[in-house]
């Protein structure tokens, strides 16, 4: 009978039928009389059994890992007690090589293995992607983006696509990638926030999934030079509404993934002990966090006026207590989330530490520092995955903020205009997709969560 052509992931309804499929040789076990091939096509893995005449050809004897082959045969349910991906195997009666892979054995067993150097892994990222873990991470990433979109749409947000080429900074001049735009200076976008704000009067609440670029010369586990930024902006809300919304989006998206058998299996594969976070998340003010760090004897590196780390005679950094006004650095933040071991909002950061557009909290008394209606969502193992805030709604206040930050207001005229033609209390947030995925899939670094990561250390592929 004619064989039905199907992808590996769709074979279950075709058991006991003759089928035809193609893929890459993922695993190969040659037992002289009989050859076992695990075939991979991106939708799944299929065990193929080659025996008798089909195992005795020249092509069979010289078959290597990663060759592409077409197989035709009968799909059999594997008996109880035996395991095969999908619970079935293909008894092959005809097959052929479509593309040979002469270097397959060497590249995939000698050069690339768990012990190979990170720089080799980076060089060979295009081959690493063929592995079971890397491909599971990317499949989970796709499911995550779909689930986020569904959740945001359920919350009545509309998706827009803002530009990547811009002439305004959002998160400070230090991390801008500058470029020449027809003889004019321009940048790669750091955040689509300002554009999202301009959509509120015409489209209502909006979100985007867009690449953001940061020239961060920091070699950390969680910084990329290009990352996927999920951002949302909401009108007529309070600061509490904003944190409630972020919490809802995170939890509902995670639950969608756990309820879907395919994505739940990926989470189980990558992060076997994962449990959905419980609401409400812990909410701790910045001032309380400073106290908490000191109570737990978590210090930070002392810096001189130029921002250089101060060292003692032995060359070790001098560690000092945190005080109000200090940035909570990555190491301290990580210690905090490791100890508390649950998602938490840190909110109310000092104005001097935060971006120009953030709304100030009502001052507590006449003197002292001002704080902003800002929040970071921290996850155990990763730290900050979301940064959000309420925005300055008043034009005069915004003009004063440009001045304080030394920003030329001219290129921001369209952003300032929002405060002239019917302003409103509004706020939003940005979520680092790779960081969220690192938390969900328990990855050591965000580099594993990006198709082709770009960061300060390398851009090989
Ligand atoms: O905290 P950030 O800088 O906030 C903004 O850009 C706001 N304008 C967003 C908004 O309100 N619409 O960045 C938001 C998030 C961070 O919490 C982090 O998860 C991620 O973006 N992020 C990075 N991820 C990977 N590599 C980097 N270099 C990142 N910088 C920020
Ligand atoms: Mg931030």
From TrEMBL:
The protein, known as: asparagine--tRNA ligase
Top enzyme category: ligase
Assigned protein family: Belongs to the class-II aminoacyl-tRNA synthetase family.
GO CC terms of this entry: cytoplasm
Superkingdom field: Eukaryota
Coiled coil (UniProt feature): none
GO molecular function terms noted in the UniProt entry: asparagine-tRNA ligase activity; ATP binding; nucleic acid binding
Reactions catalysed: tRNA(Asn) + L-asparagine + ATP = L-asparaginyl-tRNA(Asn) + AMP + diphosphate + H(+)
EC number, UniProt record: 6.1.1.22
Species of origin: Trametes pubescens
Record's keyword terms, sorted: Aminoacyl-tRNA synthetase, ATP-binding, Cytoplasm, Ligase, Nucleotide-binding, Protein biosynthesis
Subcellular location: Cytoplasm
Annotated ranges, domain Aminoacyl-transfer RNA synthetases class-II family profile: 138-453
GO biological process: asparaginyl-tRNA aminoacylation
Covered range of the whole protein: 111 to 571 of 574
Main location: cytoplasm
């Amino acid at each position: 009978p004619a064989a039905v052509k199907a992808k590996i992931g769709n074979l279950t309804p075709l058991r006991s039928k003759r089928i035809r499929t193609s893929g890459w040789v993922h695993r190969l076990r040659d037992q002289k009389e009989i050859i076992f091939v695990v075939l991979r096509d991106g939708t799944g893995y299929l065990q193929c059994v080659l025996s008798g005449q089909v195992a005795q050809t020249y092509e069979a004897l010289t078959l290597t890992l990663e060759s592409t082959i077409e197989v035709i045969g009968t799909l059999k349910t594997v008996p109880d007690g035996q395991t095969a991906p999908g619970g079935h195997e293909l008894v092959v009666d005809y097959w052929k090589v479509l593309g040979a892979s002469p270097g397959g054995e060497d590249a995939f067993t000698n050069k690339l293995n768990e012990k190979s150097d990170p720089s080799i892994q980076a060089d060979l990222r295009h081959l690493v992607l063929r592995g079971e873990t890397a491909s599971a991470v990317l499949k989970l990433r796709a499911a995550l983006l779909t689930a986020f979109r569904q959740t945001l749409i359920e919350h009545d947000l509309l998706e827009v696509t803002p530009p990547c080429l811009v002439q305004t900074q959002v998160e400070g001049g230090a991390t801008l990638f500058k470029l020449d735009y027809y003889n004019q200076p321009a940048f790669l976008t750091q955040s689509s926030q300002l554009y999202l704000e301009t959509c509120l009067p015409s489209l209502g609440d909006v979100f985007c999934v867009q690449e953001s670029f940061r020239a961060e010369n920091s070699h950390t586990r969680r910084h990329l030079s290009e990352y996927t930024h999920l951002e949302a902006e909401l009108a007529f809300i309070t600061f509490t509404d904003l944190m409630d919304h972020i919490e809802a989006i995170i939890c509902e998206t995670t639950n969608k993934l756990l309820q879907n058998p395919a994505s739940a299996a990926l989470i189980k594969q990558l992060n076997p002990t994962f449990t959905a976070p419980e609401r409400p998340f812990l909410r701790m003010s910045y001032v309380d966090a400073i106290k908490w760090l000191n109570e737990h004897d978590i210090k930070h590196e002392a810096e001189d006026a130029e921002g250089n780390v101060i060292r003692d005679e032995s060359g070790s950094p001098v560690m000092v207590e945190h005080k109000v006004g200090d940035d909570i650095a990555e190491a301290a933040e990580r210690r905090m989330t490791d100890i508390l071991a649950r998602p938490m909002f840190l909110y109310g950061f000092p104005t001097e530490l935060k971006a120009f557009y953030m709304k100030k909290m009502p001052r507590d008394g006449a003197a002292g520092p001002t704080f902003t209606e800002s929040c970071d969502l921290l996850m155990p193992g990763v730290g900050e995955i979301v940064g959000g805030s309420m925005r300055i709604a008043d034009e005069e206040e915004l003009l004063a903020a440009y001045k304080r930050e030394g920003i030329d207001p001219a290129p921001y005229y369209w952003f300032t205009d929002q405060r002239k033609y019917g302003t409103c209390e509004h706020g939003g947030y940005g979520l680092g997709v790779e960081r969220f995925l690192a938390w969900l899939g328990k990855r050591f670094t965000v580099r594993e969560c990006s198709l082709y990561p770009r960061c300060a250390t390398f851009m090989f592929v």
